[in-house]
Specification:
single chain, about 270 residues, four-stranded mixed beta sheet, three-stranded antiparallel beta sheet, 8 helices, about 40% helix
């Protein structure tokens, strides 16, 4: 939630800058009234010294001024709301942490922790509990390339080993080819499964290594569709990387994805 609030704060600030750039050089308030199904336009101005208001008819021929007045009022209304929301968000961000409830337990020394039964599991507790549920990856088919990772499991491609070893080096806990039953009833085996450090939900990483082969690419499309039909969407709970006969695994992208989805910024 904190990242969402920060994103909104930046977005609202940018909108305010746009409003300032587009400020109309007109004064007063546009007033609309109906007369025999016709719309009439008036300019209402206020004397700053006396507080008296004046209402002046604007001929329809002066539509450019009418539109500028209307646009200015719309911008002013937006500006007022944006300033209100920015103030609220700023106040929340000063005293908000997504993980403050679980951090209460972590704030205690180990001797005191031993006396407690935590009501809210910390992220590390959830991951350890999740890892304790064992699974069996898909067995290799005859002729499959098999290689051992730093974590000790057998994977079926050099790229999968590179990914697994990178996760290991970062201290990221994962499951390799952990079975997942989708809403459609299909059982699939995502290459890697994690517990998100942000949402504490399972998230999945699929590496598609032969994307330029026709049958493989068609199967990739079908698999991605199955994910989406189960409300597992790219950029949310699904991470993907690709390779082809002409392009290798892009490490810069891998590191960026790890930083974005798998490493929590405290």
């Amino acid at each position: 939630m904190k990242n969402t609030l920060i994103h909104k704060y930046k977005h609202y600030t940018k909108l305010l800058e746009i409003l300032e750039d587009r400020k109309e050089d007109v004064e007063g308030v546009l007033v609309l009234s109906k007369s025999h199904a016709n719309t009439q336009y008036y300019l209402r101005t206020t004397d700053n010294k006396t507080g008296n208001t004046t209402k002046t008819y604007i001929p329809v021929q002066n539509m450019d001024m009418i539109k500028r007045l209307a646009q200015n009022q719309y911008h002013n209304k937006l500006k007022k709301l944006l300033l209100k929301r920015l103030k609220q968000i700023s106040s929340i961000l000063k005293d908000y942490d997504d993980f403050e409830l679980e951090n209460v337990y972590d704030s205690y020394l180990d001797d005191r922790k031993k006396l407690l039964v935590p009501l809210i599991l910390t992220y590390d507790m959830k991951v350890e509990k999740w890892l304790s549920k064992h699974h069996t990856p898909l067995p290799p088919i005859d002729g499959d390339f098999v290689i051992t990772t730093k974590n000790g499991e057998l994977v079926k491609s050099k790229s999968e080993k590179i990914l697994a070893d990178t996760f290991y080096d970062y201290g990221i806990k994962y499951k390799y080819e952990c079975p997942l039953t989708l809403d459609s009833g299909h059982r699939i085996y995502p290459d890697f499964t994690f517990i998100s450090p942000y949402t504490h939900e399972e998230i999945y990483w699929e590496h598609f290594g032969m994307i330029d082969k026709e049958d493989y690419s068609l199967n990739t499309i079908r698999k991605l569709e199955l994910y989406q039909l189960s409300n597992i969407f790219l950029g949310q709970r699904l991470i993907v990387t690709f390779e082809s006969s002409k392009t290798n695994l892009n490490y810069e992208i891998v590191y960026a994805l790890i930083k974005k989805y798998l490493l929590r910024e405290d």
